[in-house]
Structures
1.
Amino acid sequence: MTEKKDVAIIDNWIAGKHEKPSTNSYMDVTNPANGEVIAKVALSEAKDVDKAVEAAKKAFPAWSALTFKARATYIYKFRELCLKYREELADLVVLEHGKNKAEAFGSIDKGLETIEWACSLPQVAQGRIQEVSTGVYCNEVREAIGVVASIVPFNFPFMVPMWTLPICIGVGNCYILKPSEKVPLTMHRVAAIIKEAGIPDGVFGIVNGTAASVNALCDHADIAAVTFVGSSKIAELVAHRARLKNKRVLALGGAKNHMVAMPDCNVEMCSQDIVNSYTGCSGQRCMAASVLLTVGNQPELLQNIVDKSKKIVAGQAAGQVGPVIDEQSHKRILGYIDEAEKGGAKILVDGRPWATEHKKGWWIGPTVILHSNPADKALHDEIFGPVLSILEVESKERAIEIENKNPYGNAACIYTNSGGTADWFSKRFSVGMVGVNIGVPVPREPFSFGGSNISKFGDLDITGDGAMEFFSKRKKVTTKWNPAREKSWMS
């Protein structure tokens, strides 16, 4: 690994300015394409969280007192600036994460969709009023819950923070972000954009770091809610720790998404969608479908998948596959491929040569594994790389049995030309998100994103109306001004 002489210093962002960590300690941030050190990010602890919370508490009364419309005006300005700096943000995503440029733009645009939805909060967050008894009115309004912490992963440096940030502050809360220490540059730039948008200091803050920062956010008495996106193991720990402090918590975990291909599927459309799903973002997304169950022998479909996978080249231009995030991920992914091969699985497309062809960085090519043993680890563990495992099954009932035994519950997809078959699978998949001929079934606003089983710990979903509900509390006011004309229990 080589290190550049001049690297960015990524400090915390508290009360509208950069703050060095109390530890005065930093860790390297590397470019996954070549292994070079591109930045040093602050390692924070409880003292830094205290400071960020105090700034947020100071900003909260005035920010939460604004109308929804007034807050939406700030969020709209933030959206316009993100559009202005769209290419710069995409370049940062490519630099620190390794996505190709088209994927980086796509992730920016998906984040912008959530910001746009947050701009509609004056319309969608309206309260209710009704005359519930003669002369008696019930009025319900949404109010902010306070200071909220959001802990996000490395795989989408801009998009995942935007799942929570605009909606959270749009309903009147103040927000503290803990970015992944692997990709802190993008949101470091966003902090300056937020300030340029005129959003008051303290409404948005960043505390960088690792486990110490996460634990301090979960434990802090003045943080009302915590959101998390990452592995299921850590999601469960975060959810348990936050709930011990009586906080609201929504922790999204990992995934092992299954695709089922029926004999009547459109081979060309299906094969292209499968390849896009498992190779997109180098397979580093919770919506990547990593297991394909073919009902019956489908050699034409397999050949199409193999042919399309072999045509993909390494790189960071549109249509190419970039590196995985770091050496640890690189070794883990290669280990799963090696183990599957040693266990008797056939490697139909082998991405391992990319690891030796690229002397710098963490590169693995698209890999397709045909399994004969349903117990193979690659069929069950979340690999988080450009690896597709294929298993032939004898019936749709067997396909559902395999999918339902999977402990995760994020997403699943059925490929078929039959509406009845699609409906049959949609009702039986044990997941939060279902695709019909769509291998990456991400709901778009106003629908919310979220899985089930060990893919989600906590309540509600993380975008759209689910997030609006999570980040707000309902206050109910019952009013009577004049004596009732008719007698009732409320008279």
Note: Residues 46-65 form the longest helix (20 residues).
2.
Amino acid sequence: MIKRDIIVIGASAGGVEALIALVNDLPPNLPAAVFAVLHFPSHSISTLPAILNRSRTLRAVHPVDGQAIEQGYIYLALPDYHLLVKPGYIKLERGPRENRHRPAIDPLFRTAAQSYGDQVIGVILSGTLDDGTAGLATVKRHGGMIIVQEPDDAMFPGMPLNAIANVEVDHVLPLAEIPQLLIRHTFPTPQAEQESLGVPRSKKKIDVIEDPTNKANDHLPDGKPSMFSCPECGGVLWEVDRDHLLHFRCRVGHAYTLQTLLADQDEAVEEAFWVALRALEERASLLRRIADRLALRNHHIMLSRYEEQIQHVEKHAEMIRSLLMEKPFAIETDLFTEGASGRDRAEYESPDAAVQT
């Protein structure tokens, strides 16, 4: 059995509770280094290490840039910093957001797989949308193992469902069963005695997420230009089809999966409608001001024309307000893209399996 001593965990909504439960069942002498990304707001203050350290299992820390990787630790991503795994050390980077997040799950999974290959175990816990799915595909491509929380067991099943639908997952388990599987695959076996933390498994070009200002990254993204613009910087998005997963990346490195891009478009459309409603109501207010002055001067012909304009503008404003109250743009995104297998669809597709947005 392969000795796997790099565990990477991704979670979002409902992830704090899930991560605490998982860590509580891991022994303090676990012969592996654990890394975890939860989606934090950029300007928040994380107390997660203190919470996890109450369990007296693994030592939980927010690492510093360049810190050496040690077994028996769980390294937690800091708010507003991507957590990257390099051969033997940790890199923190304020690079472009991925899937609207920094820290994001995909950069952690991707760099761990590129640095440690088949030593990596990727774990997806509770969360919405699909951050982590592309990272899991990279872990799988480099020989790593994939574990996903059973969607029915997750507080928010979106991330587990998307992982199952789009990646060849090794294990789908309730949260309570994941720690024992991790223990079984991390404790040494005779076949794995030669494995060590410090040996990189592959070489790669510098990733734009690691150093977006590096001149080595002064090139266009892989793939072909799409018709879409980056919601964050307005640049052209390139379509990247890798591991049977379609995602988008702009020149400076902002990255989106299909569902995250759709969610951003949802927000952009709603914002545009609120702007339109505000403009129409301001116009109606200005027209009323003019109409009031005309009424004081007994300019009845002009007053009639302005009252017609007021009715016209108010009608359109009410239409937009009705649309906004109905929230017609909250599209139920399709979990199952072309990468999903028939077995995955049959087993997990149901009316209750909608992605939380």
Note: Confidence is low (pLDDT under 50) at residues 192-206, 208-217, 331-357.
3.
Amino acid sequence: MTDRDLLDVIAKNIVNMQEDIKGLNDGQVRLESQVGKLETRMETEVIDKLRVLFDARNVQNDVNERLISALDRIEGKIDVLQLETAHIRRII
């Protein structure tokens, strides 16, 4: 193998390496773009899920308030009935 042949082989290898590096750079750019899109999508999904959880919490709080109000009314009625039955027991 002559010096000229060796230089041709080295030049071809350098060209191949440069093409590979360019391909890697292009791939990195595409990957960075996809990562950015993925981050945005994940942020949107997380925000949506948090919003749903917050809304569900508010609905549950409303249900709890209605139940507590109903229990308070029932408790008041039971107190009245206890007073009435105590009064009837004294009379009898």
Note: The chain has one helix and no strands.
